[in-house]
Write a structure and sequence with these properties.
By secondary structure, the protein is an alpha+beta fold. It has helices spanning 4-18, 88-109; strands spanning 34-41, 58-66, 68-70, 85-87, 116-118, 125-127, 131-137. It is built from two helices and seven strands; from the N terminus they run H-E-E-E-E-H-E-E-E. Belongs to the ADAT1 family.
Length: 161
């Protein structure tokens, strides 16, 4: 099993250790948002998960993005050579889409293992049963997603993480 705190820690470690220092905010002066998609692999048969012998779970950051900017209408160009939305969630999503397309290419060419297996119809692929993906964001996204109702703790729709 895994926890939200483990996912967050993995993402922060990936950001801090695996990515170069160039382009990162200046400590104590600047900040940014971080978003990522994490691949979690665990046995399809979780019945063997017991307290004395827990199921082995593998976690891997497969896409990550940082940023808080949107360039706005005035700076957009018709030829599309400027990225309009550089929010962390958008960059992580675009990176994840690229990852998925690469995995489809691997599955179709049978060159390497892929996250996809053939589906029931020709040309249809499905995700392996032992995999799930989790989205992580260091902060709530901008806009309506960041509007949090002021409810009493016991009236919240879900438990805090």
């Amino acid at each position: 099993m895994w926890t939200a705190d483990e996912i967050a820690q993995l993402c922060y470690e990936h950001y801090g250790i695996r990515l170069p220092k160039k382009g990162k905010p200046e400590p104590n002066h600047e900040w940014t948002l971080l978003a990522a998609v994490v691949k979690i692999q665990s046995p399809a048969d979780k019945a063997c998960d017991t307290p004395d012998k827990p199921v082995q779970v593998t976690k891997e950051v497969v896409s990550m993005g940082t940023g808080t900017k949107c360039i706005g209408q005035s700076k957009m160009r018709k030829n599309g050579d400027i990225l309009n939305d550089s929010h962390a969630e958008v960059i992580a999503r675009r990176s994840f889409q690229r990852y998925l397309l690469h995995q489809l290419q691997l599955a179709a060419t049978l060159k390497e293992d892929s996250i996809f297996v053939p589906g029931t119809q020709k040309g249809v692929w499905k995700l392996r049963r032992d995999l799930i993906f989790v989205f992580f964001s260091s902060h709530t996204p901008c806009g309506d997603a960041s509007i949090i109702p002021m409810l009493e703790f016991e009236d919240q729709p879900c438990c805090p993480v």
